[in-house]
Structure formats: structure tokens, C-alpha cells
Amino acid sequence: MIQWTGATWCATRRDSCGFRHCGTWARSISSRQGQLNVLAEYVLHNISDSDFTLTGPAVSITQILLRELAGRYGYDPLDVSGYNRRYRNPALSYMSAERLLIMYSQGGMALVTRELELLREHGIL
User: Fold this and answer.
1) Residue 12 region by backbone torsions, left for phi larger than 0, else alpha for psi between -120 and 50, else beta
2) pLDDT tens digits along 5-30
3) Which residue ranges make up each domain of the chain?
């Protein structure tokens, strides 16, 4: 729904609770004709969130894969602090969950292990 107020307009939408919110992506029209408040950052932010349907499952599956391989690299998943700081977080930082999931689907645990070995060789794990 578009609301007009003088020279400004606002696109409103309802959230899951039924409350109306004014979108920040299109806040107003400038006093000069033909100038909109549309920045490239708004588009990039929208695009960056477009893969959420892959990200959630990728993280869930990748965490299982990393947990299974942790012993090979000397990390105990029950030591949550050490496991997360020195193994899981660096692995996910250098190789995203999405990338690891794609590698697993293409080459199984062998390909994931090969990539983790590269991190180990560089002193990251």
C-alpha cells in the first residue's frame, strides 16, 4: 500500500503481528523533481538476504559434517568453547557453510576433508 503525504510517500506493509511498518527503502521524494531516495545499498542489502532459504539448511548440515570430522583435527565437540573458537568458527569463516555444503554434495566427506586439510596446512585449524 502506498501512502501519500504532501511530497513524500511511504510503502507500508504488515508484519506477522499485523502492525504496519514504513519501508526505509523508499522513504521520500526529494523536492527536486525526479530524485528518489533510492541508494545502491538498499538493493545490495535486499540481494544479500535472498539466499536465506539455502543458508539455514546449509549451516545445519555443515555443523553435522564438521562435528563428524572434528576428532580428525584434534577437537572435541563437547569442549564447546575450544571447538567453536579454534575449529568450527574458523572453518565457517574461511569456507562458508554454503560452500561446504556444495562441496559435500559434489565430492562427499573426502572433498570436505581435503578443504579442511588446506586450512590446517595454513595454520588456521
Assistant:
1) beta
2) 444 444 555 555 555 555 544 444 44
3) 2-48, 52-121
